Amino acid sequence: MAAGAVKAQAPEPLTLERFGSFHVGGREVVVSGQPVREVLFTPGGVPARVDPNGTYLMGSMYAQYFVPRPLRGSAPLLMWHGGGLTGVTWETTPDGREGWQHYFLRRGWHVVVSDAVERGRAGWSQIPEQTGGQALTLTVDNPFERFRIGNGQGSYQRGDLLPGNQFPADRESYMNFMRQVVPRFTTTDALTLESYIALLERTGPSVVMVHSQAGQFGWRAAQARPDLVRALVLIEPAAVGDPARVEALRNVPVLMVYGDYIAQDARWPTIRGNGVRFAEAVRAAGGSVDVVDLPERGIRGNSHMIMMDRNSDEVAKLVQDWLAARGLWR
């Protein structure tokens, strides 16, 4: 058990009607002009001739779903992760508590957690003409300082947390978090949005919950297919939708949630400001957007990774109550 972790009590058993997984989306890409190679796949084996020229399927995504009994959510709840992460974001917290996947499943939601294009079980197709550039990987100190866990530059080396921070930042828990961090491209947004829309077309009308980088995908998927988004929950969205298409969101109720320590951060006042201005544009077009700053609700100490913080269930209840108030839970 991670140092400082609360010993988990045995939870009530869950009853599932069904669960499973699938891949969805992607496009075919033709590669040509590459040399044929001989590859030894296994030490001591026989070399195989590999011709890299031909048609590839790339840009698919992975999804895992759980349908509880009784079912109380009126639509599937899709959970979309942020940059450099996978669907693990929503599963078990770094210090071993049940994550939001479990929280909402226990309340009767059909939960779908996905790994976006090039992440986790979606796979990674290294075709430069399609992915562009190089994948980025984070050092261990980067999220500690950038995700509003540590107190400024150099805080990881100092072990200096922001006062009252709720992220489980003991070394064992934090390293569990870093084990979740995966390489990411900054050039695959179009592929990712295509696959998220394909996921919505597969699941049908759904509640979409997004985090960080996925903010843009949530906004834009709802703009492209408002008929398939019953509600949009944005947990610290890092980007906005298309300003020219805000009217497409007028029938999609939206909740935006922001954590603590934003005013003193170098980047987040601008990120939050962009999000709030976009929300105002949606309201001006006839839409409904609720913006919640957790400290104003008396919920303090939240990092950028709100769903992993020690008070994550308190924030999940806020989201659950908002969904129920919109008639999406019975």
Automatic annotation (TrEMBL):
InterPro entries reported in the protein's UniProt record: AB_hydrolase_fold, Carboxylesterase_BioH
Source organism superkingdom: Bacteria
UniProt name for this protein: Esterase
Organism lineage: Bacteria, Pseudomonadati, Pseudomonadota, Alphaproteobacteria, Acetobacterales
